[in-house]
Amino acid sequence: MTTNTPLASLRVATPDARETYDTQELQRLDSAHFLHPFTDHAALRERGARVIVRADDVYLWDSEGRKIIDGMAGLWCVNAGYGRASIADAVHAQMLQLPFYNSFFNTTNVPAVKLAALLARLTPPQFQHVFFTGSGSEANDTIVRMVRRYWQLLGEPERDIIVSRRNAYHGSTMAGASLGGMAGMHAQGGLPIPGIVHIGQPSYAEHGRGMSEAAFGLLAAGWLEEKILEAGPERVAAFIGEPVQGAGGVIIPPSTYWPEIQRICDKYDILLVSDEVICGFGRLGTWFGCELMGFQPDLIAFAKGVTSGYVPLGGVLVGGRVAHVLIEKGGDFNHGFTYSGHPAACAAALENLRIIETEGLVERVALETGPHLGSRFASLAMHPLVGHAETCGMTAGLNLVRRKGATVHDCEAFPAEQAVGMLCRKHMFDNGVIMRAVGDRMIVAPPLSITKEQIDEMVERIGVCLDLTLEEVAARGWMG
Ligand SMILES: *Cc1c(COP(=O)(O)O)cnc(C)c1O
């Protein structure tokens, strides 16, 4: 280890080969120089960033030596878990062999070819082609251009409107953030870009009062048809949605929703796009979320779990309907990225997908760990602070409420300004479990490699932190 640079002194090898860190100095440099995503920097400067230095299996360690169970799989991406030396080895070997070459000018590389062929096998049968990107946002930007190019080639260039949903998350680039339905993102930077419109999200808790879940699913899908008729059916190019909304708070639609969306897209001949950046590669207990939800998209955006986040990679799976037109009528598609088909990233994906497949992680989520997470969250729903809890595969969410009710619609929420979710999240951090807060909805999406015993450990810690949050909230006189 070299020690001749000033920064190297921040990481000191100790005699037992463990490392210690100068946390305060790291935090000082961090706030002096590093602008973080989606972060209030003045507030971060006050608190100091948590410095994560190491990970293994489903655990993280911070610079103070604290061990934390990672309930969020990094950021919904470390599907195979941490510490997979074989992924590191595959990337290392590929970097020595060919660290980079582009795939623009009649060239290709071996890992990209192998990965494209593997994806054709693992994905639903309509997908035989893939366009590689560096991230999920770039995948969705690619989708906007590809969808519009498709209709142009078919002689219907006026079909350029893409319908998305409020509270959806499709990334942070101009098109990704426009497709997304986050008002706070639209307010910064003049979004959405033209030709993107939004309908309500299929949240039974939010919109389904007085209805069965099945009836609500049909109603929510019907908003798409209303929007198509309002915009003019000859103007609408595509509909995009996440099978289960992730960043929006693990919003699990009723089972009637997606088949009805499919029926409406078919009726008006519009393209159906599934954003599987979170749901893809096993998260819901199927390889892709559309398989669980029962629909056949024309395009799929993916990223995150394809490499388990070890290196960045994303892409668009292109179904036969679109691929045929692009390839046979398209000529040049004037779009692409320096890192489309990056050999080291594709090598990471190949090894990651081999692990997921050979260890049967998708089946394990479907048959064993997913149902276990479901029953453990059902028990958390009994907690006095929890209004309702839902899971789908290896994702889960629960709502913190002021007063419980007989149904999800009879619970009384805390006023938003009390920010009870953030209080709860802090207890989680301090007690060694990462759980994300979306308003007052607390969510997890752990690595797919998590065991039943580790789920128990995670849920027990969550229970303790719910107790601590309840104590604090009650002491402030906020309970109903
Ligand atoms: C994370 C995410 C994206 C954006 O992916 P990036 O790699 O962060 O650009 C897009 N869609 C969904 C559903 C996501 O969760």
Automatic annotation (TrEMBL):
Gene3D superfamilies linked: Aspartate Aminotransferase, domain 1, Type I PLP-dependent aspartate aminotransferase-like (Major domain)
Family named by the database record: Belongs to the class-III pyridoxal-phosphate-dependent aminotransferase family.
Listed name of the protein: Aspartate aminotransferase family protein
Cofactors demanded by this protein: pyridoxal 5'-phosphate
Pfam families cross-referenced by the UniProt entry: Aminotran_3
GO molecular function: transaminase activity
InterPro entries (alphabetical): Aminotrans_3, Aminotrans_3_PPA_site, PyrdxlP-dep_Trfase, PyrdxlP-dep_Trfase_major, PyrdxlP-dep_Trfase_small
Phylogenetic classification of the source organism: Bacteria, Pseudomonadati, Pseudomonadota, Betaproteobacteria, Burkholderiales
NCBIfam families found in the cross-reference section: PRK07480.1
Keyword Transferase: yes
Entry keyword annotation includes Transferase: yes
Keywords for this protein: Aminotransferase, Pyridoxal phosphate, Transferase
